[in-house]
Amino acid sequence: MTFTAPVLSYTLLSPMLILLGGALLGVLVEAFVSKSKRSSVQLTLALSALSLSLFQVWQIRGEESLTAAMGSVIIDGAAVLFQGIILIISIISILLIADTGHYTALPAALPGSEEERNAIQSGEQVTEVYPLTLFAVAGMMMFTVASDLITLFVALEMLSLPLYLMAGLSRRRRLASQESALKYFLLGSFSSAFFLFGAAYLYGFSGSLTFSGIQQSVVGGTGNDVLLLIGMAFLSIGLLFKVGAVPFHAWAPDVYQGAPTPVTAFMAAATKVAAFGAMLRIYYTVFANAEWSWNPVLSAIAIITMLLGSLVAISQRDVKRMLAYSSIAHAGFFLTGVIALNKSGLDATIFFLLVYGVATVGAFGVITLVRDSSGEVSDLNRWRGLGKRSPFAATTFSFFLLAFAGFPLTSGFIGKFSIFSAAYESGATIVVLVAVLSSAIAAFFYIRVIVLMFFTDATEDGTSVEIPSILTRITIVVSFAITVILGVYPTPVLDFISNLAVFIR
Amino acid sequence: MFLPLVGAAVIAVLPKTSEKAAKQAALVTTLAVTIATIVMAIGFDRDNVGLQFVEKYQWIPSFGISYALGVDAIALVLILMSTLLAPVVVLAGWNEAHGGRWSVKSFYILILILETMMIGVFAATDVFLFYVIFEAMLIPVYFLIGGYGTGERAAAAVKFLIYSLVGGLLMLASIIALYVMSGDQGGHTFDLKALSNLEMSSTTQNLLFLGFFIAFAIKAPVWPFHTWLPDAAASATPGTSVLLLGVLDKVGTFGMIRYCLTLFPEASKTFTPVIMILAVISIVYGAFLAIGQKDIKRLIAFTSISHFGFITLGIFAMTSQGQSGAILYMFNHGFSTAALFLVAGWMISRRGSSTISDFGGLQRVTPVLAWSFFIAGMSSLALPGLSSFVSEFLVLVGTFTRYPVHAIIATFGIVLAALYILIPVQKALHGPTTPGNEALTDLNLREKLAIAPLIAIIVALGFYPSPLLKVINPAAENVITQLGFTDPAPTNGGK
Q: How far apart (Å, rounded) are the C-alpha atoms in residues A347 and A435?
């Protein structure tokens, strides 16, 4: 028996390898660097790993050889775009994550225990959030390029596990944070199980774990269709859970609320890109020829996701929960792009993911600024009159909300317009009508927040707006600038995306 | 078009304390825009029914979107009206911004941004560009009402925004459909001309027409989409109300001509009977409610609903007189409503109350104010010799030749108009001076300067409307011919 050494094509894998290397180094830093320097060393390390990785992604964008690691990974144009977007979002959100005031001193300690008090008193501050972020980013990037079910599953776990941990790191409201982490973990495990179950059925259907193998069976129609349908359904459940589509959305509001806000920002923005990256790849290539089996179901899910997300958001009194429901509604909008199943749908979804991710990070960035003596204030009633106390925070936040609402001259409008027109082009008229309708519903609660900030008088309860640290300020300003520019002159980015966005089957 | 933006930028860099400088800069800018528009109007070739002063640049080529501007006679008239009103509003509302939530400076910045968009929305020839401006305009208005208005200003601002957004999104759905169809028929585009040549089934056309029409009917506002208007107009400052009723609402009626009729000629014909009925209901309903109003600003808002009914009636009568009448009506209504609102605003700020019955005997105390109100009111009820008469007459004649019953019912609107204008005129101006009004001051020089041009235009166009009609008529006829209508033979020996 002879073994052939696997050909890995390190160049194509390098963006992910750099991140993993950075993450491992980060673990070592955590162990060996002195407490006082740890935080800045970690930030530098994480930032340089992310930037270097982004640079590598840029380098390989035109590479000829497309598969790496023996066909487990496909680096095509769309993959480069997904990875790039994930990295851009990670870079701007790592600056937000860098504000260590959000994290508990010693996550391992029980909330309210002696141990925890000691840790706080001695000024300890662990910085494990950086390596965790890097691991998650690497997992997300792998998720979008995986081209067999095993790699996909490994990537799924790699991105999920650090996120479960990160959700439990919050300094304030420790119990809620831990509850959210546990909830996320339990439900996430269930969805992973569904995912695996689906993968097993697909293997039963096609006798292959690779995407191309399954696709061939779908095209050839030789396999047992029942197995295909079951496999597809369960796999989809796993993916829909990650994007927070109804009826698999229950975790989102609690986790968004409980997790430290910078982590929420990162999770909300980057996970969506990764999950939709994988989803687009699977539906646009593997299952493309079985469109009639999944299109009606996904359309129905998109419709209820958009409607439920927008409707429930109206009744929210907490700004983080409101954004959670808004992200659910957005998951529905992205699904319309999946349903479109055409080139313009692919381009539009990629563009919309970019603008939504950036605006989300910016919006949560603003939320981190609004505080009182015991931490962040996310109760909307206490946001009254913010426009007077902090024009910077209120104006930028309003702008991000308008972008979510899809108001013209913001990036969100171009995103929504392109994705809706792609879906309409594919004949999904009803889905588009519902999408437009739920945009109208959604506009209502975004605008209510703007009214609250600008047109009502402040209550005197000590809510104050933190003077943003330079890093947070960079995050907000950069997100703001991207949102404006992509709203007014999106042409270069749109062209870049449409030239590059191709799936290799 | 971008002149007001430059002015806004200048004001933005002025220090916060120099409120006077901000006001002066705003006035100078708006006047400069007015002059620029008049120069443009003089250079306008009125025999050419196509677009003139065309500017076109690629904006988002991958969607076929371009930044395309151009004016025909209809757009020109409305731009002229907007830019004439802007300096008047600035001058008339010199002290309006002081009660606001934010600085005086921001008030003028918002006004100037709004002016830019007003010009842009009339001049846009790219449907996408039109939509973008149509929606983006809401934001400055929203802040103008919510930030500087009175009473329930925040609620009124939100109501206004939500109504408009819902309409706008319906229009967006239609625009997307148009865009996709243009892609199927030879390349994605948003160019108005190219889109008007699209072939579509009558069902599609009807649906898309409704998307556009409802958006415009909310904006205009036509009954039953009008409920936001009285609140918004009553809460806004008089200057904002002038821009809201005088200009923004015209976007609705302008859109009906420019987009509904041009893009969906067949569907327009299908829906004409329904729309005519809605228009007549608007006329009568607005007038009846106006009679019942105790608040002077709400009264003017309801009269406007009645007037917009006339405009809609004229547009969908599908005769060239009706069409010209409607266009002229839009122009005239801008000035008569502006005059009414500004004078009412002065009355309110002097008396500290907006209830009609609080006034009385103003004729004696403040003669100039009273006369201004009187003339504006008379113009609003279309007294012969004042500008609105000509347009109202044209609309009715144009309607009568095709829809005699509608025209007759609409004529009752005029009778009611006499009631709703004469009652407040009588209460407020004549009779004994009611207690509390003895010490009111008359208009000062600034206010006289602001109202004078309005009254001059109202009177001048009442006696001699033909220069404007000469510009409008070819455009109106062009619209009608393109729809494939010919004017019915005059009955009873003509008009």
A: 18
